[in-house]
Amino acid sequence: MDRRDFLKTVGVASTTLLTKNTPLQAKESKKDPKEFMGILVDTTRCIGCQTCEEVCAEVNGLPEPDFERDIFKDHIWTSEKQFTVVNGFETEKGDITVKRQCMHCNQPACVSACPTNAMEKTPEGPVIWHEDRCMGCRACMVSCPFGIPQFEDNKANPNIMKCFMCWDRLQEGEQPACVENCPAEALTYGKRRDLLEIARQRIYENPDDYYHHIYGEHEVGGTGYLYLSAVPFEEIGFRTDLGNEALPKKTTGFLYSVPFVLTMWPALLLGISKATEGNEETTKSEE
Amino acid sequence: MERTATAPDVRGEFKRFIRFLLSEMKPKGKLITPFNVFAAITLVTAAVILTIRFWKGLGAVTNFSPDYPWGIWVAFNVITGVAFAGGAYVLTFMVYILHLRKYKPIVRVTVLNGFLAYVFYAGALVLDLGKPWHIINPIIGHAFGLSSVLFLVAWHFLLYMAAEFIEFSPAVAEWLGWKRVHKVLESMTLAAVIFGITLSTLHQSGLGALFLMAKPKIHPLWYSEFIPILFLVSSIFAGLSMIILERTISNRVFRKRTSAEIFLTNDAIHFGLAKICAVTMFVYLFMKVIVLVHGQHLSLLTTSWGIWYLVEVVGFVLIPGLLFTQSVRTQNINLVRIGAMMTIIGIILNRLNTSLIAFNWNSTHRYFPSWMELEVAIAILVVQVLVFRWIVNRMPILSEPPRWAQEPEEAIDNRPIKIEEEQEKWKVSIM
Fold first, then answer.
1. CB–CB of A272 and B97 under 8 A?
2. Whole-prediction pTM
3. Where do the structural domains in chain A lie, given as residue ranges?
């Protein structure tokens, strides 16, 4: 037994040493094979039929969207009653319709801002929300660069509402409802890495049909939703001034300073207090 | 034998204590005064509004919108109010760390003010929460948002309230005549002060850090990565200006309860605070200029937002700063008060600009608080003033502490407290 145990230990030790020395093996032995999933929206294919709006409302138990709306004139934004919206834009390359919803950022500001971990970036990609943790502070709404999380302010027990990329359906191995039902195949669900390849391939194969940029590849540190367009993105309602830095990085400097202040301040203050202890009498007599 | 001898005594003591508490609960002074009538109406209205708010949801009484998820309760009561409560940490720093004896007479009233401010502003936060019953989650729950600035601020609020209560607690012990407890509490003051200053440094700046991720939303003139530092530095002169205002009002309203020492040191304290305000304001202005130039936003000053920015920075920081300087030079105490008032307006402008006015500045839906939001915001201040008055009228905050508490070396006096005698000493003031 002793010998076997010894050999086992040696074996384990040597394999760890080996894998450590060979980068290839180390890569393979990486524990979590999960990659962020995402959705590619090709706006050149979108026909503006609002089917995604319809099935989204159906799946999430939301009121039926307004199909009478002229999507080119009445631009709307997501609300607590509608997780995804389709807006239309008239451009020099013709009419373009765009589906908008939560971008499912790689490093979401809403998750970083949440004091209770109610917002969660799942390892699979979707950004979801836990009702039992949320205290309704709305820090997520303040922080989201896209203005996505919505608050049910007409309810005594309000929830934060937004697209969860059909998290429940994904758990059962299904695709998000909007992707599955899109009649124009404008939406593609898959690993974010693969989606980027597909997007690039489409741009390379039809360089004249596309504006050469994938919105969401780098924006705010990368997003789960990726967009292709025929025209520059600011023309179809996207903010292009958000920068490529993930927003949570803006608070890391502050948060890193917290332990330093917490440990150094008391020592310093106590030192000053002791150093000036005798001063009380002198300052008193001066007056 | 011993037990039976002491037991009735303890019971008698306890009865006397309860009777004392009950007698203290009664209002002192006239009940029907203009302020009391105003307070009663405000509070009843607020109670009705809050009933609707918890019954029908926040939207029923507020003008919150997706672009303005935080309204005036957070922007004014919490974010602005906490800046004004900063006086407590600055003053305890000067008195207990730097041992500046001069400011000692007003340290208790300032700490009380700070403590009440935190209690009621944290209260405002509860009204604002969508699910206030989950408020314990970040404290004890399974949900620690360690990367969240708000998580840090929430914890610091809680801990700082405890620290301030310890700083203030000797006054409670003196009120109740608990001599042994008093001794223990007094010995904890320095630790509480050090802890309190540390926490204040972090959460005053933390309130600014709440907006760091909102870069795409805040007008560039008000956004910089230095918001936390600017918030911290401005909380120094905000807090001190609030002390000046509080002193001016309290000296009038609580004249009869104010000790001779406070009146004697009044002017010296005012000029001392004015000097500190002036210096920190110029440091703040210097930082503002650097941020402006470094951010390459000088060209924005000619826009209408730029003019609004200049109103805040020149009109309500530079000018009161100069007024403070001038007041110290000419020993003009009224100038100190004017400077303090202007500084307070400047801080309100700065905090509201950051959190509401220049927040989502290019949004088509502008936010303006509903009358119900304003009413509740005022009611929160009224409650604070009422509690402040109740405590000042009963505990030795402005008045001299009882003789036994003045010399801690003195042997502990074991005589039972004579309630009537004590009450005689703490005279009533009218408001």
1. yes
2. 0.86
3. 37-249
